[in-house]
Amino acid sequence: MKNIYGMIAVLTMGMTFSTQAMAVAYCQGQVTNVYTTANGDVYARFSYASDYTQICNLQAVWKGVDVQACWGWFAQVNNALMESRNVLVNYPTIPSGQCSTIPSYGNAPAPGYVMSL
Length: 117
Description:
Layout: H1 2-21, E1 24-36, E2 41-46, E3 53-57, H2 67-83, E4 86-95, E5 113-116
Antiparallel strand pairs: 1-2, 1-4, 2-3, 4-5
């Protein structure tokens, strides 16, 4: 019986650490620049990142982000730029606290959502 309680404790600790390691990044900051390429790639420069990051593509699904969602994000980041408003970008594949290390340009992971603040 003692071994069962020990195993439960170890499993609980393991689940706690794996949940913490998988925490998602919620990156908040100002949009400083936005541009779109001829093939529809949308790139934005956010104050929390060191360089431009691609967020989606207006003409084709990009890393699972649908075109309709992209048009919404495109409008949000451009509006935030014009109004000097912050945005919150959720990155489900980036660990919490790692917003400044997000890969640049097309190497960036797909956001889970983009929120105007």
